[in-house]
Amino acid sequence: MRVLVVGSGGREHALVWAIAASPLVTKVYAAPGNPGTGTLAENVPIGAEDIPGLVRFALEQGVDLVVPGPEGPLVAGLADALAEAGIACCGPTAAAARLEGSKAFTKELCDEAGIPTALWERFDDAAAAIDFIRRRGAPLVVKADGLASGKGVVVAQTEAEAEAAVRAMMEEARFGAAGATLVIEECLVGAECSLFALCDGTDAVFLGLARDHKRVGDGDTGPNTGGMGAFSPVPGLDPAPLMDGFIRPALTAMAARGTPFRGILFAGLMLTEAGPRLIEYNVRFGDPECQAILPRLRSDLIPGLLAACQGELASFDLRFRDEACVAVVMAARGYPDAPETGTAIDGLQAAAAVSGALVFEAATRIEDGRLLASGGRVLTIGALGPSVEAARETAYAAIGHLVWPGGFCRRDIGATV
Q1: Cα–Cα dist 29/66, whole Å
Q2: 27-59 pLDDT per residue, tens
Q3: What is the largest CA-CA distance in the chain?
Q4: Which domains can be identified in the chain, with CATH numbers?
Q5: Burial (CB count <10 Å: 0-12, 13-18, 19+), residue 12
Q6: For 64, 141, 161, 263, which has the most beta carbons within 10 A of its beta carbon?
Q7: Are the beta carbons of 74 and 283 closer than 8 angstroms?
Q8: pTM for this entry
């Protein structure tokens, strides 16, 4: 098989790493990829959002399967365009990708399907939203309805913070059209976890549980980020009731709407005192959760992706290693506000040589033979181990071999499980 992975981050490096290991695969492409994917695949200079370019390339190269990493191309219709060209894509149609593309759509589906979630209201007018905030009181969560690169959610502890978020999204159009409609919901309290499932429109197979660390600083301090690290599995959590409560009802509701969901469905959950509640659905792997889940997968990933495309998951199963995995993000100084780019990174080979360690590149580039940081979240250093504690010790031991004064990481990823 010839497989094309779409995207350029650490998630995509992990996907390329897992796919390239399959004996069923003869060629892997990454579009646009990064220096890390380039060691396992052929990078091609096509942007993840360039749908016509991706389809044209897939046709020209005889690609058998496309695996999208980020959500943007899916919401924009990548899977639809590939289907028209007769190319398999392990990802949802644009209509099904509304599960991530519209917060209000997801909330309506939850109410319809009886999926537990936070109490919520939809607003298309800033004055009405602010009036609701003043009547309801804080804390509240203000969400832009559309895609906002992970930045369109504000957990407001005061009414003033909530009102400022409304004005920024609706009046200042900070996120463009994505913020024209808002969802305002109750602020759930508890531990978060990420549930992943491989779906074929009707059936679903468990793909992993992970816990992400969103805030930039140790002890969950500082601003939210795209994710500073993750670990898998999450001790003490049984995936079976979570699959029954949050994945299968969503598949049933989407199929009933005539928009069956195929691909990877990610349910972000809050484990409250009253039970698990849905925070949001994503229509792809998380980053860095992907880097913590795929190393634990004992099964070949390719047959699972194909079964999802072909509607054959009813009799399919995936096997996992007993080991835990911890994945630590290395970010550029100044992230998430103004990351410093262009700084040199050394010691990557020494880090990768640590027994059990895994190195996934994200925002990197090569210039004059040196590896340089080119964005915010630059590397993910992971490790397998017999326990979360053992895995995190190995991951941080590998990080100790890096020579990168321009980078930093949290030191408590996986410390509290």
Answers
A1: 9
A2: 999 999 999 999 999 999 999 999 999 999 999
A3: 60
A4: 2-89 (3.40.50.20), 119-186 (3.30.1490.20), 191-310 (3.30.470.20), 324-408 (3.90.600.10)
A5: buried
A6: 263
A7: yes
A8: 0.96
